[in-house]
Write a structure and sequence with these properties.
By secondary structure, the chain is mainly beta. It is built from one helix and four strands, in the order ββαββ. A four-stranded antiparallel β-sheet has the order 2-1-3-4, with helices on one face. β1 and β2 form a beta hairpin.
């Protein structure tokens, strides 16, 4: 399964938890998110899982845009 984030931003009010993040994880690759506390790692994972909706940008799983899909989908 490939995962791609393109220019993803997530804002909570005035606070940008994630700002313009882009990366691709190809099928079979292993990736780690590293950074300080409050750096947006959990928010990125929650957006990939469908638990948060990006304020801007796009998330693709297996080439399908999933920004507006529910967790169950």
């Amino acid at each position: 399964m490939s995962i791609e984030l393109k220019n993803v931003t997530k804002r909570f009010g005035e606070v940008a938890a994630v700002n313009n993040v882009s990366f691709t994880v190809n099928e079979g690759e292993l990736m780690a998110l590293l950074g300080p506390s409050g750096g947006g790692k959990t928010t990125v994972l929650r957006m990939i899982a469908g638990l948060e909706v990006p304020t801007a940008g796009d998330i693709f799983i297996r080439g399908q845009r999933v920004n507006d899909l529910s967790v169950q989908e």
